[in-house]
Design goal:
By secondary structure, this protein is mainly alpha-helical. It has helices spanning about 10-25, 35-50, 60-75, 80-85, 90-100, 110-120, 125-130, 130-135, 140-145, 150-160, 180-190, 195-205, 215-235, 270-275, 280-285, 310-315, 325-350, 355-370, 385-410, 415-420, 445-455, 470-480, 490-500, 515-530, 540-550, 560-570, 585-590, 595-625; strands at about 240-245, 255-260, 260-270, 435-440, 480, 505, 510-515, 530, 555. About 55% of the residues lie in helices and about 5% in strands. The mean pLDDT is about 90.
Length: about 625
């Protein structure tokens, strides 16, 4: 049975060969055609239209078209129910595409269409994939959709979900109103068989097409909590853990071990207790806890390069969500535990992290950089965590606004600062340094990145080679490989990389990286999505300058890189992400309450706010050190 696949699919070539066979086997003496035969010939015409305009001669194509015409001549308004029952299950979607293409919906009576839909032979999405058919039967389809609790899942896949496994377009009846859509969503929350992944989409939905009331979102939140509790009580699961250990007998700085699904971070307690200077305490977040990497990029952000294939396909995130993966969750939990345990250790030494943050802005910046105008105050130690959260969020916004004024004017004009009432936009936080961050700027980058670094690209499987390579990049770096090691159908990809200056193929067929520096730049951008220009070797800077000149790369100047901006927005407000923690708005709008459970939440949120402030300290210090080179903190 022939199916339609794009040229990117490995099944494509076999299906085209099958089309050749079907054309050769057409019996021109027969005048009868069944529905499945007609659909198979329709698929052949799709291949001819989209990919193979000259593969088959006119005579062959005429034979195909005649077989379809034979079927169409035999159809009438009373035969559609019987015909639909004959459709092979593998052709359920193709059947309705066939109906759409030949405008056969105009020959189907309403009663027959209703009978076909109510028998539930076809997935409703097979019909919804065809806009003209949907419009023609909109009244019937509207009633069907409103009456089904599963319609909410279809709505969420169309408007909210990022990872719709079936990529076919979903078309809704034009007469379906926003109020009816809202009711479908609300009813689904109460539906006995509602799925957790769809409920989570409702909770974080941020779409102009679906208006979900606060009441419905609250109802959804409560249902999620209930279902999650039931799930973990009634299922077996693998537990993952994180342990933070401070050991006086350990003298190696930091050690990370993974055993029995538990990651253990061990730190040298004696060294930490003997090095409690303010600058060292802050430096420990760089060199012990690794909140940033060697380029001073925040390591805690979510990275697409750390997302597995299964996570990508079935992650269930909304289009407007801040994308998170298992690596992100681990980094988040580990950094929270590192910070929490370190704060407890410091308190035991009568040292408070808030005072050290204040010292950085009030004293250190003045002494080291000659900037004496920063104002930062700590909350009183005897106030509630709710009050601490509110206080520190105001201070966080204030310090970034002060830094913006310093970058613009070389000083902080507090009168100007007090006049301004605009909410801080983390995308507008300024840097003292030109050409601060480097980003891809070419449509070629995505394709290059896939071919070089994806474990789904077949180029990382050279024939007759030993070694477990995770990408073609690793093949190039760690092995000698020849174009003869690849089947013919992959040669086009190798030639494309050659034509775009990534590699060369010698006369003997050996594949060689043309420019190792360029290759590493590509790898760094694939892994981290940004390069900190002033924190890389001069050789890389020179090559990047050349790539900027050709517009393959671009640069921006900002305090936070784009991944870091998104990270802060995810934590602090719902401006861009439906799943944002929204800490700023929750606290500064005064909607918090006092309960035992809420006190624990405020304590946890205060830890998150402190983490963000520490990141800001590191980023501002790096910015100033780049402008005015001195020692680090």
């Amino acid at each position: 049975m022939i199916k339609f696949y794009s040229t990117n699919d490995l099944a494509h070539s076999n299906q085209v060969l099958l089309a050749d066979t079907l054309i050769d086997e057409i019996d021109t003496s027969s005048t009868e055609s069944g529905i499945n035969e007609a659909i198979s010939y329709f698929i052949i015409l799709k291949y001819q239209r989209d990919y193979y305009n000259s593969r088959w001669n006119i005579t062959s194509l005429e034979k195909v078209k005649e077989r379809i015409a034979n079927f169409l001549r035999g159809m009438n308004s009373s035969s559609w129910i019987d015909t639909s029952a004959e459709v092979n299950p593998q052709y359920y979607f193709e059947f309705w595409e066939f109906v759409e293409n030949y405008q056969l919906y105009k020959k189907i009576e309403n009663t027959a269409f209703l009978t076909i839909v109510e028998e539930k032979i076809f997935p409703i999405k097979a019909i919804l994939a065809n806009p003209n058919t949907v419009k023609y039967f909109q009244d019937i389809l509207k009633v069907i959709l409103i009456g089904s609790p599963y319609t909410a899942e279809i709505l969420l896949e169309k408007y909210v979900s990022e990872t719709q496994f079936d990529r076919r377009e979903i078309n809704l009846p034009p007469n379906l109103t926003s109020q009816e859509i809202e009711k479908c969503i609300s009813d689904y929350v109460d539906f006995e068989n509602a799925q957790l992944n769809y409920l989570r989409l409702i909770e974080s939905a941020k779409s102009e097409h679906i208006i979900i009331s606060d009441r419905t979102k609250l109802k959804t939140k409560r249902r999620i909590i209930l279902l999650e509790k039931e799930f973990f009580e009634n299922s077996q699961s693998v537990e993952f853990g994180i342990t933070i250990s401070y050991d006086s007998d350990f003298h190696e700085g930091v050690k990370v071990e993974y055993k029995d699904h538990v990651t253990t971070y061990t730190y040298d307690l004696s060294w930490i207790k003997n090095n409690l200077e303010n600058s060292t305490v802050l430096n420990n977040f760089i060199y012990l806890f690794h909140f940033v990497d060697d380029e001073m990029r925040l390591t805690l952000v979510n990275k697409a390069s750390e997302t597995g294939v299964i996570e990508d396909l079935f992650g269930g995130s909304a289009k407007t969500d801040y994308k998170t993966n298992m690596h992100f969750e681990h980094k988040k939990n580990a950094s929270n535990m590192q910070l929490s345990s370190y704060i407890q250790l410091l308190v035991s030494q009568n040292i408070y992290i808030e005072s050290i943050i204040s010292w950085f802005f009030q004293t250190y910046v003045s002494e080291e950089f000659g900037i004496g105008d920063f104002n930062f105050s700590c909350p009183s130690s005897d106030v509630t965590y709710l009050e601490k959260c509110r206080h520190m969020l105001v201070e966080m916004e204030g310090i970034l606004k002060q830094y913006n004024l310093y970058v613009i004017d070389g000083e902080i004009d507090y009168e100007l600062l007090n006049i301004s009432s605009e909410q801080l936009d983390f995308r507008s936080c300024k840097s003292c340094v030109a050409k601060k961050y480097i980003y891809p700027n070419s449509e070629l980058f995505a394709n290059i990145s896939y071919l070089l670094f994806s474990d789904q690209c077949m180029l990382h499987y050279p024939q007759n080679h030993q070694g477990n390579f995770r990408s073609f990049y690793e093949v190039l770096i760690h092995s000698e490989v020849n174009i003869a090691d690849y089947p013919d159908y992959l040669h086009q990809q190798i030639e494309w990389l050659q034509s775009n200056g990534i590699l060369t193929v010698s006369d003997s067929g050996q594949i060689i990286a043309k420019d190792i520096v360029f290759l590493y730049i590509l790898f760094d951008l694939h892994q981290n999505e940004v390069i900190a220009y002033h924190n890389i070797p001069k050789q890389m800077q020179k090559r990047i300058d050349e790539l900027i000149a050709t517009e393959f790369l671009r640069f921006e100047s900002s305090l936070l890189s784009i991944p870091e901006q998104d990270f802060f927005i995810y934590y602090l407000n719902r401006k861009s992400f439906g799943n944002s923690l929204d800490l700023r708005n929750k606290y500064l709008h005064g909607t918090q309450i006092f309960t035992d459970e809420e006190v624990k939440i405020h304590e946890y949120n205060y830890l998150l706010i402190l983490k963000l402030l520490i990141v800001i300290v590191i980023k501002i210090n790096d910015d100033l050190c780049t402008k005015i080179p001195i020692r680090k903190i």
